[in-house]
Amino acid sequence: MFSIANLNASTKLGKDISKHLLIAAAVCASGSILAANLNVDNGKSSVHAVFKQMEVPVQAKFKKFQATIDYNAAKPELSTAKVDIDVSSIDLPAPEYNQEVLKKEWFNAAQFAKASFVSTSMKSLGAGKLDVSGNLSIKGKTIAVRFPLQIKTEGKALSFEGNLPIKRLQFNIGEGEWKDTSMVADEVVIQFKVVTNP
């Protein structure tokens, strides 16, 4: 038999459920502001590889890449990043070499179409700087890397900028006669700027 007591209990239960749902919604809403998968503006973003050929600096641009950044402004250590680069989109100052560097001795793009970076940890250094660790995969080889990342505000947008120095021979980029570092230096710096829209 339904009674006033049952009605009161039912009403209290309903209020408790509503209260918990509102709290959960508020937590989710605040989390979506502080930690969000950011929308990357490819037109304003860039990835370059800078190296020396016979002691002359060369800057190569990768025209196609995809970046995914889940940035938590309140707790940067919870942030993550992933970048995939289409190696066949490389654009050298001397265009006649663009196809050459895709061959087996260099990127071997037919077998390894993408280079990728996946973060494993981020640590705040204060003043819009992060210490980023992750795994860099090029030509089928994965190496743990670490580099500083600068976060800047551009209007309502954010930009994530950094330089990642690597050794090309660690990734077998330049095999055979191209292991000669007097022709092409072993040191390469990956320069990147990823701009995100609000």
Give your account of this protein's structure.
This is YceI family protein. InterPro entries: Lipid/polyisoprenoid-bd_YceI (IPR007372), TTHA0802/YceI-like_sf (IPR036761). It is a single chain. The protein has one helix at about 5-35; strands at about 35-40, 45-55, 55-60, 65-70, 80-85, 90, 115-125, 130-140, 140-155, 155-165, 185-195. It is elongated and about 50 Å long. By secondary structure, the chain is of the alpha+beta class. The protein has one helix and eleven strands; from the N terminus they run αβββββββββββ. It has an eight-stranded antiparallel β-barrel with strand order 1-4-5-7-8-9-10-11. The chain has one domain: Beta Barrel (Lipocalin), CATH 2.40.128.110.
* Strand segment count: 11
Q: Any idea what the radius of gyration is?
A: 24 Å
Distance between the termini: 57 Å
Low-pLDDT residue spans: 1-35
Q: What is the CATH C-level name?
A: Mainly Beta
**Oligomeric form of this entry?**
single chain
Q: Within the CATH hierarchy, at the fold level, what is the topology?
A: Lipocalin
> What structural category do the secondary elements indicate?
alpha+beta
Mean pLDDT: 85
